Amino acid sequence: MKRIFYIVIFLVISNSVFGEDQHFNSLIRVPDSVEIFFVAETSTSKIHQFSNVDGNLTIIKSFYMSIGKKGPGKQRSGDKRTPLGLYFVTEQLDTSKLHEKYGATAYVLDYPNFWDKQLKRTGSGIWLHGVDPNGGQRPKYDTDGCIAMENDDLRSLQGSIKSNLTPVLVTRNLFNNTLKNKQALRLELESAVSSWALNKSSKDIHTYLSLHRIDSDHSDFNESENSLFSIKSNELSKNKMVKIEDLLLLAYPEEDDLYLSRFRLVIGDFNQNINIVVELYWHRKENGSLEVIAENTV
Question: How many Å apart are CA 231 and CA 224, to the nearest integer?
Answer without folding.
Answer: 9
